[in-house]
């Protein structure tokens, strides 16, 4: 039988999915697009409090190649995004997702690009960092980049960029309601690790063993604060200590 042998990428993805279900990244929810397909993941991103994206509910797909982790996945927003590093079609342009070839034209060092030690967790942290701190050096959306720089350099007096993001955040509320999702708006809520509900469509066939501890998910939100590492400290940025390209510029 052709699929007796499980590709190593499938094993790697199964382990990563299990790890992200058991120890989620704050502000993210991961599910499979279809329960039988490990190569297509759906991501829900909650906009971090105290940023322009606060209260937003943004959906994206991660698509993995058959030779993962030797080649990077693609990360595409399904929600309309106005951002210097996101293309019109939703594709995210970020160094960590570029193959590790030496390309002096790009201004990126090979060490900044994809390598097999990276994983979904590092991608998610890079994406959330990018939302807060766009890279205007080689923008995917030039107009958004110009507008962002005006907003940043005027210290918020030029409001055009902020207004567009605010409108996009408001437009995601209908999506959140349709999906029955409560979007966190305080740092304390945001820092609670969001376990995927046990009835989620991405589970039953292959991954029953991944979902053992999901039963008490949403009702247990208050208790989970004690369990999560970064979530225990509500005084600061709950993803700040894991991602060093944080907030020093703004």
Question: Would you kindly provide a written description of the structure presented here, covering whatever features stand out?
Answer:
- Keywords: ATP-binding, Nucleotide-binding, Phosphoprotein, Transferase, Ubl conjugation pathway.
- GO terms for molecular function: ATP binding; ubiquitin conjugating enzyme activity.
- InterPro entries: Ub_conjugating_enzyme, UBC, UBQ-conjugating_AS, UBQ-conjugating_enzyme/RWD.
- Pfam families: UQ_con (PF00179).
- The active site is at residue 93.
- It is a single chain.
- The protein has 250 residues and is an alpha+beta fold.
- The protein has one domain (8-185): Ubiquitin Conjugating Enzyme (Roll), CATH 3.10.110.
- The chain is built from 7 helices and 4 strands.
- It has helices spanning 8-22, 120-132, 142-153, 160-171, 173-178, 187-190, 221-227, and strands at 28-32, 40-46, 57-63, 74-77.
- The chain has a 4-stranded antiparallel β-sheet with strand order 1-2-3-4.
- Mean pLDDT is 77; it is low at 198-250.
Write the layout of secondary structure elements.
Elements: H1 8-22, E1 28-32, E2 40-46, E3 57-63, E4 74-77, H2 120-132, H3 142-153, H4 160-171, H5 173-178, H6 187-190, H7 221-227
Antiparallel strand pairs: 1-2, 2-3, 3-4
Question: What are the defining features of this structure?
Answer:
alpha+beta, 250 residues, Ubiquitin Conjugating Enzyme
